[in-house]
């Protein structure tokens, strides 16, 4: 089928042997394959990585506090904080290099812009920052469970579900903050060796108290969200699965199509059963899986926030333990090994190509 052709209905079956679940699933199944080491780089790739690494390791480096082009005063700039150095992992630098086709200058510029954006948006990771994005800021957006992290796919990618039919608020900046908060949570909860997420977008209408129905956001808001995802979360989407796409969803997608980059478009799936991509034991029953999940805000939300903060604190503690330097590997930060395996300047045996 073509990108905008009408989809066939997916029959969601509810098996008898349902698995009750009401909270975050903390780990993927033990039988899912786990990487034993970080991916290898060619000699040329490592040289480019080292170039970017040294740029951000420069102790004299300062960045604007805001994205305004008028940055003349020293008070409007600041050196990288410990939390910003924590964010600049080995894999982070490599994601931006891959997103710019290994163009060193372009990767550095995009990283600079994202660091400034994270300062403005309040997601540097510093809980004491005046504008730090807190759970309570976005909690009201999720009282109907319109966004949920639940389960993992066979590649151990966390499943991030957007249930547009549970929309409970009118378009606003808080909706953007809500999405960014969940993106940060999904990243923190990614298992060791995982950098991508599986996105499931459900357009069904849910007739429940507090739900105002599924509808497309204004183009301006959608463009802002898309820009944030593409510019500041590159190389994070593994697969996007669309479920029960209505006519207005197709119309909206046609309008947004010119703003979606080709790499992202290649990861969108419209007409295939969700169970083809996510095992039944990790998938909600309404999509053909075995998880008997009914969103209960009083139970799910506190657990979700607790797991998110627990993972952040754990990884940051290991960052401090291993020297608090730029370029540490997420493999080490998310692992349980007592010793550091991959120092910032680690170089694997070369594999050309």
Automatic annotation (TrEMBL):
GO cellular component, one term: cell periphery
UniProt keyword Endoplasmic reticulum present: yes
Span of domain CRAL-TRIO: 137-295
GO molecular function: phosphatidylinositol transfer activity; sterol binding
Location in the cell: Microsome
Transmembrane segments: none
Highest taxon listed in the record's lineage: Eukaryota
GO biological process, one term: response to xenobiotic stimulus
InterPro entries, per database record: CRAL-TRIO_dom, CRAL-TRIO_dom_sf, CRAL/TRIO_N_dom, CRAL/TRIO_N_dom_sf, PI_Transfer_CRAL-TRIO
Matches recorded under Pfam families: CRAL_TRIO, CRAL_TRIO_N
Alphabetized UniProt keyword annotations: Endoplasmic reticulum, Microsome
Keyword Phosphoprotein attributed: no
Catalytic activity: a 1,2-diacyl-sn-glycero-3-phospho-(1D-myo-inositol)(in) = a 1,2-diacyl-sn-glycero-3-phospho-(1D-myo-inositol)(out)
Identification of the protein by name: SEC14 homolog 3
